[in-house]
Amino acid sequence: MARAVSTNRKITVTVIAWSIGFLIFFPILWTILTSFKTEAEAIASPPSFLFFEWTTENYGIVMERSNYFLHFMNSVVISVGSTLIGLLIAVPAAWSMAFVPGKNTKNVLMWMLSTKMLPPVGVLIPIYLIFKNVGLLDTRTGLVIVLTLINLPIIIWMLYTYFKEIPVDILEAARMDGANLRNEIIYILTPMAVPGIASTMLLNIILAWNEAFWTLNLTAANAAPLTAFIASYSSPEGLFYAKLSAASTMAIAPILIMGWFSQKQLVRGLTFGAVK
Amino acid sequence: MSTQHSRSAARLMISPSVILLLAWMIIPLSLTLYFSFLRYNLLMPGANPFVGFENYTYFLTDPAFFTALTNTLLLVGGVLVITIIGGVLLALLLDQPMWGQGIVRILVIAPFFVMPTVSALVWKNMFMNPVNGLFAYMAKAVGLQPFDFLAVAPLASIIVIVSWQWLPFATLILLTAMQSLDSERLEAAEMDGAGPFARFFYMVVPHLSRAITVVILIQTIFLLSIFAEILVTTNGGPGNASTNLTYLVYAQSLLQFDVGGGSAGGVVAIILANIVAIFLMRMIGKNLDA
Question: Which residues of B touch A240 (CB under 8 A)?
Answer without folding.
Answer: 125
